[in-house]
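Session log. Operator J.P. requested a structure for one protein chain; no other inputs attached. Running the standard single-chain path with token output.
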Amino acid sequence: MAGRPSKYTTVGEIEAEIQEYFADESTRKTITGLAYHLGFESRQSFYDYEKDGEFSYTLKRARLRIEMGYEEGLHTPACTGSIFALKNFGWRDKIETGFTNLEGKDIVTAPLTDSQFSELLNQINANSDPG
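Structure written below.
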């Protein structure tokens, strides 16, 4: 990594600091909080360290533990903050429906009539015939 020399030389050192962070019950667990506790000057530095092969697994597990906390927050009445945080973790609340052919093109663009549905079902059955 370019820039400042690594603060941690072994996985054990960084794991001990991470466990200390999670043991402190006085703060909410966040990526920024963890990055600050570990001595990083930014979240980006945390993510850069996460890319390092030696520390990657340990930091990804710590990030997953924080993400889990937000997911558990979805089961509370005031879960808006958790939803926002999870979207920053890459979660989406988009519902996708429809049918596509093998080329990924939509084959249903409007509600089917009974005869269209029967024809489609026959085509599906014909294509899935093992013989």
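Operator note: The first helix runs from residue 11 to 23.
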